[in-house]
From TrEMBL:
Coiled coil: none annotated. Signal peptide: none annotated. Keywords: ATP-binding, Nucleotide-binding, Transport. Belongs to the ABC transporter superfamily. GO terms for molecular function: ATP binding. It comes from Luteolibacter algae. Residues 2-231 form the ABC transporter domain. This is ABC transporter ATP-binding protein. SUPFAM superfamilies: P-loop containing nucleoside triphosphate hydrolases. Gene3D superfamilies: P-loop containing nucleotide triphosphate hydrolases. InterPro entries: AAA+_ATPase, ABC_transporter-like_ATP-bd, P-loop_NTPase.
Length: 310
């Protein structure tokens, strides 16, 4: 559904998107993640035909977004970060206007507007002026606008940004519902949201793709490379160098607890679980060991690790 090949965007001297390639298959729900300024909006604006690339290409449903822009854009429902709405229009009037701009006939527009009003839960506000709507309802109108021409692909740029927790939950439920019969690319900062909705994530940082996989695989990799915490009753000057020298261990930090107990955290390489080695070392040295566990990784850990600046 989306095929991005060596796409780049330069703003003056700054390379905001650097030679990225990825694809999204029909029916996938892909979370597009990255810290502020990573290049998400720039990429999305290129994919939706609003911004010309400095290099590379992108196809939507096999149509080149730059050379076959009209065909490609017909298939995209785009909800930008700050949904531009006409405040002095009423909801239904605005959606009808948008449907006509998008080329729907009068009768198709009427039918589709009624459908998206129902899908997006806008029945109660369809006659209201847009300027009187809450942010949550404005987002729904933005989603209805993105859907009105019946696109196969939805591209949503931070759709829950600025909403309160209840509104976030409502929009998330709506997106989950829409995901049943659309391909979705969703950019967000809310990682729990991605874990709940997406079947794959793409992490971008400084204009480059750092990872593209299912949340489960990314978390599993992170778990393998994970953190192990242990509590040993021995001075840190003795235990820390020993723990730091264990195979695969990259870093150890220790903090003193009561009665000469010491809590140490070990970060290790991918594929290694140091728990057994720690237990053996403690036993060999006669160090009392009262706690030993592996930290369960989350998508947030993956995100922080992938986008860490060090
Ligand atoms: N119109 C522009 N002119 C110059 N630089 C820009 C422009 N738009 C974005 N940038 C820069 O390009 C980089 C990528 O920005 P972009 O908005 O794509 O990031 P983002 O991942 O969407 O960030 P955020 O999560 O904050 O929205 C940033 O360093 C930003 O300052």
């Amino acid at each position: 559904m989306i095929e991005v090949t060596n796409l780049s965007k330069r703003y003056g001297r700054q390379l905001a998107v650097r030679d990225i390639s990825f694809s999204v298959a029909r029916g996938e729900i892909v979370g597009f993640l990255g810290p502020n300024g990573a290049g998400k909006t720039t990429t999305i604006r290129m994919l939706t035909g609003y911004l010309p690339p400095s290099g590379g290409s992108a196809k939507i449903a096999d149509f080149d977004i730059f050379r076959q822009s009209i065909e490609a854009r017909k298939r995209i429902g785009y909800m930008p970060e700050n949904v531009p709405l006409y405040d002095d229009m009423r909801v239904r009037e605005f959606l009808s206007f948008r449907a006509r701009i998008k080329g729907l006939s009068n009768s198709d527009a009427r039918r589709r507007v009624s459908h998206v009003i129902e899908t997006c839960g806008l029945e109660g506000v369809r006659r209201k002026m847009i300027k009187t709507l809450s942010k949550g309802y404005r987002q729904r109108v933005g989603l209805a606008d993105a859907l009105v021409h019946q696109p196969e692909l939805l591209i949503l740029d931070e759709p829950t940004n600025g909403l309160d927790p209840i509104q976030i939950r409502q929009i998330r439920e709506l997106i989950k519902h829409l995901a049943l019969n659309h391909t979705v690319l969703i950019s967000t900062h809310i990682l729990s949201e991605v874990e709940m909705i997406a079947n794959r994530v793409i992490i971008i940082d400084s204009g480059k793709i750092k990872a593209a996989d299912t949340p489960q695989n990314l978390i599993a990799d992170m778990r393998a490379a994970g953190r192990v915490q242990c509590e040993i009753q021995a001075p840190a000057e003795i235990t820390t160098p020993v723990l730091a020298n264990l195979p695969h261990v990259k870093k150890v930090s220790s903090e003193p607890l009561e009665d000469n107990w010491m809590r140490s955290t070990l970060w290790s390489d991918s594929g290694s679980d140091t728990r057994q080695t720690i237990a053996s070392i403690a036993s060999e040295n006669g160090w009392p060991l009262r706690s030993l566990f592996r930290h369960e990784a989350t998508l947030e850990d993956v995100f922080v690790e992938m986008t860490r600046k060090d």
